[in-house]
């Protein structure tokens, strides 16, 4: 499997949210918009938690310290949603009594 070669102009310039999307502006002028539901930690975060982000990974990543979420421009450019977590198999549910 090949990897997407990142260019210097694909660094994060800014991050914006709507109720349904995450948009990341890149230094080359492009903007990547993805459904917010692709990233459950961000979707479930408060607006204040979403706005508390920092550039990471040499400029190619975004980190949200309050919710421990990290995204990078390579994944966003590929259109990669967060991996789905597997639920417990049938019969392995916790006892709620």
UniProtKB/TrEMBL annotation:
Species: Bythopirellula goksoeyrii
Gene3D superfamilies: Uncharacterised protein PF10387, DUF2442
Region (Disordered): 72-97
InterPro entries linked to this entry: DUF2442 (IPR018841)
Protein name, entry field: DUF2442 domain-containing protein
